[in-house]
Amino acid sequence: MLHALEGAQHHVDGYEASFFISYPVVSGLEGLDVSTLQNLTYFFAGLKIATSFIWMITVALKTDMGVAWHRFLAFPNIWFKRNAKGESSLGALLPMTSGGEPIDFEDPDEDDVHGVSQLEHFSWMGLLDFSTCTECGRCQSQCPAWNTGKPLSPKLLIMSLRDHAHAKAPYLLAGGGKSMEGEEKASEEQLASVPKAALEEAERPLIGTAEENGVIDPDVLWSCGACVEQCPVDIEHVDHIVDMRRYQVMIESAFPSEAGTMLKNMEKKGNPWGLAKKQRLEWTKEVDFEIPVVGKDIEDLTEVEYLYWVGCAGALEDRAKKTTKAFAELLHIAGVKFAIMGGDEKCTGDSASRLADEPVFQQLGQENVMALIMAFGEECDDDGKVTAESKKPRTAKKIVATCPHCLNTIGNEYLQLDGDYEVIHHTQLLQHLVDEGKLIPVTPVEGIITYHDPCYLGRRNKIYTPPREITANVPGLRNEEMHRHKERGFCCGAGGARMWMEERIGKRINNERVDEALSEPRHRVDGLPALPDHADRLGQRQEERRQGQGVHPGRRRCPADRRTGAPQRGVRPPLGGARGGGQAQRPQARPSPLTGDSAHELPQPVE
Asked: Domain 4Fe-4S ferredoxin-type spans what residues (predicted)?
């Protein structure tokens, strides 16, 4: 309006460039004298200034209005994000700290605070995150938990923590707070002037069910990382969720019983199934060529180009062993010199870390780092540190992994344990070998396939192209993407140690993903499943189609349904048993396009 009044006072008589939009209003003001136009200018200018002042006063009085405050807080929140390079803060979890200092798990201090059980335990960056939320809902729309009828909404999580922080602020500013034993730190005089509402808010447990009047329900404390990837102001949801989960697991011992079995097996046997160490080499007897073992066939890894980190599933799980043997055979055909650890390695500890049992992760990680130091021919001093004389550069310590979780843990999280390695995924190495002509696809495979991006491969490590490049080189094979793929890919539901736990609320996430893959009848979806479990689910769903039962992708229930409707309950068999419901029909083996051998398939990414 002010622009139109300016045009009327300057006698604009056409659609000029600077008055193209406002000219209709200018023409409507034609005929008014200069004095009237000036008075109208004063009125609308005053109205605009008054509106701005009212808005500023409202924002100042309501500091929890994220829709408004993000305009001021977004820049510092992005500037102070964890990853200084500007990438999303996924990959490695933050090390556990107490009072801003890392916790020494070998000799912990009595006053160390493990995880977050009270609002004041969050860092200043966490409080800034809570206040910066724009309430746009992008995180929620991408969240696999929310889309399958579960209580986790990253948006509502951050908003609940923000509202709790502002409601509790008068109590904290008066010096209030509770020790780990629940004793009040402030005196009665200090709390005398604190509003009753703030005192009541201070009594609420940070983590608790609705019956306990908790701020955050325990069922909310799981994550895949899609929220962090989608947030326009770089809120780091996963860091805060893991901090709260660390307290639940390490102090309250609050985690599903089946997860306890997995942690016990990891701690005692070094793998989630509790199998004997010698069984890690059983798969090598099923191939017709020799696979060098470090410390047995070769002294150290200086004699080979790559260490093949097979991982627990790759060495011990029957379905994943198919991938292991196929990949090893392809390396052998291409003439790549590689070796394996031979049973001295333990589980990388990914599930323990994501479940938030930090001591178990530290134990497994340190043992693996020490084993890798010896395998790469390095030496340690009396303090367990690699000596300067024997230390090798990162480029001389190459590891290839088929499991995205192993890749992420060794490549990103072992840096915190002084383990610095060049870790690549097996699809990256295979793509390189195909590009160099050392592996040439020979057998045509007619059809259309679709590829699932594992969260720990794509979202956390930005590896999207190699698997697609490999399939693009296979004659007759075409890749057709699912609706949710690459950066907007949908979680399979196994990350965050969820593979080892029951999924009792809403629709199973892996079923949702499989149904999406099968929603296009032309898809040949048995080519590159991310989990062995997916292969079983694919086979089962395809069998249902053949029997005429049909498959209909599940729809997310609306919030009203979630509050009033009875939850759907999925049942997963006990740890170590078959998953996927009943006797699943597995995909039929087909000739390998790289070797022409019907006994092997293209390596399958294992998540």
From this structure: 124-154, 212-241
